[in-house]
Write a structure and sequence with these properties.
Layout (H helix, E strand, L loop, with lengths): L1 H17 L10 H6 L1 H19 L11 E3 L7 H14 L21 H16 L5 H20 L34 E3 L6 E3 L4 E3 L5 E4 L8 E2 L22 E2 L6 H7 L2 H10 L3 H9 L9 H8 L18 H19 L1 H4 L23 E2 L8 E2 L13 E3 L1
Parallel strand pairs: 1-10
Antiparallel strand pairs: 2-5, 3-4, 6-7, 8-9
This protein binds 2-acetamido-2-deoxy-beta-D-glucopyranose (NAG) (3 copies).
């Protein structure tokens, strides 16, 4: 008995010393490029997560937590039930918008639109802010809950590992357009010129689609809101919540994904950035830096232009948004768990985009607004995937 407890004590002490993120230099350039390093890092983080939660003695455990899977790892029937439930939510009436509010939101017709409108509403308070990661974690959780509670979905939120598709997203099974996919690419539109993305100083070549999604589960998906801030300027609506009925458009663009969403890019991010301010900044891209989009911006822009996925404000219009943000959330969880004591509750920044206009540093006691999605949440409740409203992990 004594022997066991002193061994445990030893493990705890050495655990503290060991529970630090491995350096990037532990891996060869080949392993970083191929994804072997990322796989090893996510396994390491998962093992540490299991050890940590099992030491906590709480109702939510590693073994009873909900498991979110990569879209392609889900059984085909479950993929279809997910996309069916998304379509259902798109045909479900608004749940929180009151009749008095309705005139202010001419583009909101469905429960799904309430999610899009909320993201539009808070765009400049939830990006390049302290709560970017926590806000989006809760946002996708709330959609998952609605799919289950309003539309009979029995699974959990899938994620999309875009790094596996970085070389050619247009060839991904996720977008092959069959009934078990997330819908196809947009119809190919030839002879388009490059687009200058001014704020990011990028000249974006056209991608592999460009028109309406024609096959798969979302072939007749119409979106009602935005774009608000697309560089394809003549597309933009005047008022943030104006009605703009249009088809779901995609232009899957390997020029973006190969540059921003490779296994190298995500491994560099997770192992290369040890401070939250650098980690969350690099993930979203440093303006003007050669990583102008980061893996987060890359996952949006690989949708190409003009696609719903690329619009800063109204991007949740494309259901792929939620799978992309599942991946972003997974990356945060991996990063947190590589050094859980140092990183579980670490935040940095204010509540305004790039602190413009200036605002106070956010605190974990702050309330975070969720508009038409849900009641406002305490920031500190959203940091732990095994605490607050959550009990889930990624596989
Ligand atoms: C595309 O551009 C080329 C060269 O400018 C032209 O020959 C061709 O007819 C165009 N195709 C279409 C579909 O507009
Ligand atoms: C992303 O990774 C690719 C190689 O996979 C590399 O060429 C590119 O420079 C990286 N992008 C950034 C912004 O680091
Ligand atoms: C937009 O923000 C305002 C102010 O926080 C809030 O009253 C309103 O409910 C929000 N609307 C949506 C759709 O999030």
């Amino acid at each position: 008995m004594h022997f066991v407890s002193s061994l445990a004590g030893l493990a705890a002490v050495s655990g503290l010393a060991l529970a630090q993120s491995p350096p990037l230099s532990d891996y060869s350039p080949e392993d970083i490029q191929s994804g072997a390093a990322f796989k090893d890092v996510s396994n390491t983080a998962d093992g540490r997560m299991r050890d940590n939660i099992n030491g906590r003695n709480q109702a939510c455990t590693y073994d009873n937590a909900q498991v979110r899977q990569e879209f392609r790892a889900m059984p085909k029937e479950q993929r279809k039930s997910f996309t069916d439930a998304v379509t259902c939510l798109h045909h479900t009436p608004p749940q929180r918008m009151t009749d008095a509010e309705r005139p202010n939101y001419p583009g909101v017709f469905t429960r799904y639109d309430e999610f899009v409108a909320t993201h539009i509403n808070y765009t400049t308070q939830i990006h390049m802010t302290a709560d970017f990661l926590a806000w989006h974690r809760f946002f996708i959780h709330a959609l998952e809950q609605d799919l289950r509670n309003l539309c009979g979905y029995t699974g959990y939120m899938p994620y999309w590992d875009w790094a596996a598709d970085a070389a050619a997203p247009q060839d991904s099974e996720v977008f092959n357009g069959d009934e078990w996919s997330m819908g196809g690419n947009g119809e190919y539109v030839p002879n388009r010129s490059n687009t200058w993305l001014g704020t990011m100083q990028i000249n974006l070549p056209p991608g592999t689609g460009g028109g309406c999604v024609q096959n798969g589960p979302f072939n007749d998906f119409v979106t009602n809101l935005g774009p608000v801030s697309s560089p394809y300027g003549d597309e933009n609506v005047q008022g943030h919540f104006d009605h703009n009925r249009r088809c779901l458009t995609r232009d899957l663009n390997p020029a973006i994904s190969s540059q921003y969403n490779s296994y190298k890019n995500v491994t560099d991010l997770i192992l290369g950035e040890i401070y939250i301010e650098d980690f969350q900044q690099l993930m979203q891209g440093y303006g003007g830096h050669d990583n102008a989009l980061g893996v987060h911006g890359g996952g949006h822009w690989l949708g190409g232009g003009p696609s719903q996925l690329e619009d800063f404000h109204s991007s949740p219009n494309d259901p792929v948004f939620f799978l992309h943000h599942g991946m972003i959330d997974r990356i945060w969880i991996i990063w947190q768990n590589l050094d859980i004591n140092g990183r579980q509750n670490i935040i940095h920044g204010t509540s305004t985009l790039n602190n413009d206009p200036p605002s106070d540093p956010m605190q974990l006691s702050d309330m975070i607004p969720f508009g038409f999605v849900a009641d406002d949440q305490v920031f500190g409740d959203l940091m732990d995937n095994f605490g607050g409203p959550y009990c889930y992990r990624y596989e």
